[in-house]
Design goal:
It is built from eight helices and eight strands. The protein is an alpha/beta fold and 249 residues long.
Amino acid sequence: MPERGNMRLMLRSRYLTRDANGRNVWQTSVERRTVPAAQTALLLCDVWDRHWSRGAQERLEAMIPRMSRVTSHLRERGVQIIHAPSDTMDFYRETAAFRRMAAVPVIEPPPPADHPDPPLPINDSDGGSDTGEPTWHLAWSRQHPGIEVDDRRDGVSDDGRTIYRFLRHRGLTQLLIMGVHTNMCVLHRSFGIKQMVRWGVQTALIRDLTDTMYNPAMPPYVAHEEGTRLVVEFIEKFWCPTILSSDLL
């Protein structure tokens, strides 16, 4: 069984500075932070069973085994697992995992803090699919079955305020996020990075267990993987640090 106790996180951020010639440059910094497993939550953002974009579905399928391994490992270490597959709560409404979160006493979040919010480095205005689907549609009905929802210990919700008060009620001070898609749901959901950071939640993205909705036919006209890298670096610059799943395992 994995060891409980403290977890050592290698948190990568980027900051703007000047080099020896006085030119503006982005530098990488790594903070080593030790956090108690019992005060940490892992949130799975929109890890759905199906997606309207074939490219998005295929890339998620490739990550599912690693996501499952990380989820199981952290659960056994005492980390609180929160599943947030948006638009699928009817599937979970009668489960203990859903009721566990819904029953938490109301704790109002603070007023959202002001935070710089520059534009993304990629253009996703076409919906971001790289496999030619004609239009968006709601294809998902539950979380991907390749990742277990442990009804005895986990939580399920797609509501940011519910998740916030669950974190505070349980004394969970460090939030780790993995899932899809980095430039959309992971950043913008009511439980996503932007909202949690504005509410003062210490947040980190697992950067190798996420993917973008980005079509290389759109600016900045780079490979899909490069588009994901650009969005991850954008998050490191402006929103929160990132970590690798290997650090957690």
